[in-house]
Amino acid sequence: MAKKSLPVSESTYFILAALLDGPLHGHGIIKHVLGMSEGRVKLPVGTLYGALDRLAGGGLIAVEREEVVDGRPRRYFRLTDDGTRLVLTEAERMRQAASVVTGRALPGSAFVPLTSPAAAGLALGRRPVWRPALT
């Protein structure tokens, strides 16, 4: 059983999330993470392989297979059951934490909760009109 505590770092979360779709090699993980994070999480190669070694040591990922491409070794990593449980648990923890904020509008912000009537207007391309709350 993995000995990993929550919450996990953002880069670890995205590495595990990238492997949800199946085994990937290092460069594939880097590209997947960059796309999923919309360019926010950039993993240098040294950082990635350090993280992969820690995750493998913790039983969260495993080497699926190895091959040689253009004379260079390439390892494909996959999630273990513990890794899958961890990333899904972390996703749920973040969803619950985000709902504290996304469930209501914040005074003085341009934030519109998705469940509000104003959000329906945004979905139709209308800009929200902000009015002070009546007390």
Automatic annotation (TrEMBL):
Record Gene3D superfamilies: Winged helix-like DNA-binding domain superfamily/Winged helix DNA-binding domain (1.10.10.10)
Origin: domain of life: Bacteria
Domain Transcription regulator PadR N-terminal: 15-85
InterPro entries: Metal_resp_DNA-bind_regulator (IPR052509), Tscrpt_reg_PadR_N (IPR005149), WH-like_DNA-bd_sf (IPR036388), WH_DNA-bd_sf (IPR036390)
Protein name according to UniProt: PadR family transcriptional regulator
The organism of origin for this protein: Spongiactinospora gelatinilytica
